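hey so i finally got around to running the thing on that chain from the lab meeting. sorry it took forever, my laptop kept dying and i had to restart like 3 times. anyway pasting the input first so we r on the same page abt which one it is
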Amino acid sequence: MDPDLVFIQALQHGKDEGLNELIARHKAAVFRFTLRYTQNEADATDLTEETFVKVFFNAHKFRAKAHVKTWIFTIAANLCRDHFRKKKRHPHISLDSTEEYGREQSMGERLPHQGKTSAQQAEFNEFTKAVENAINELPHKLKTPFILFALEEHSHKDCAIILNCSPKAVETRIFRARKLLREKLSLHL
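ok and heres what got predicted. didnt touch it at all, straight out
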């Protein structure tokens, strides 16, 4: 039984408390996913908010074929895809980016140093930035299942539902994504 079903049903019956509970339960995970996908905190925040706006306005369309969480991630994944399509057509520089002195900080630079020497930390930061760039350069069809499965720890089945494909297709896309990442990161390994 889906523990979120009662909240979506409450929302379908006009009770906004259902949305509040869904936000409390899934906002952090949706934000992590959109941040990993966009590599931009402002965009991730906007996409997370837009995801829950769509949940609110489309709650009546939900059918209990999948879990509510899976449906929410489907909305987020579609918004991420649309965001990048729009961004390709209309590129711009964000004033809200995490850039510092003309360059964006890598995830490694934002993580605590944990007793590493400055040379080790610099090497770790360089590798982390290379991984982030390689993931970001993956095509949407490979990037989305890779982030959902490898980073967000969704099952193949859930990924398949989110992406509207078979679990075998998800497995193949993840395999291809890992292969491309290995090729791109071979200089750093």
